[in-house]
Amino acid sequence: MGDLFVVFFWHSVYNMFAAILQAKGGNMIRDVSEVIYEDGAFFVKKADGIKVGFEMEAEGFRKFALLWKLIRNGLLKTGSLLIWDDPEANMNPELLPVLADILLELQRNGIQVIMAAHSYNLSKYFELKKEESDQILFQSFQRKGEKGNIIRI
Q: Cα(117)–Cα(99) distance, rounded to whole angstroms?
């Protein structure tokens, strides 16, 4: 893969991520300068220079920040595999469409995403936002009978 493509790809992902968060999350991205790792701990550095311990941020925001850190550090790139269990847990429901947009865009740029979710709303956002060329596969399971056999539906 050529360097020009890599620069274009990550510039595109960055702009998409920033635009989605600004549109959907209000001041969420405007207030954050960066996520930093210092002295064995993560901090969110605010636009005014103040560092806030990562544990003090809302859980949903921390999930977006860690995802953003993986992208910015180049650890999540074309050909990567992202495995995420319950990405919607403890997240503001208003941010679920943002999460779907970001994960779909990552998939469109060659990152395989495998996730387990318990949110009907999140799965519906994927269904509504996906394009014909997107490669999305849904699996649903439920218990059937008294013995609790699990079946695929």
A: 12
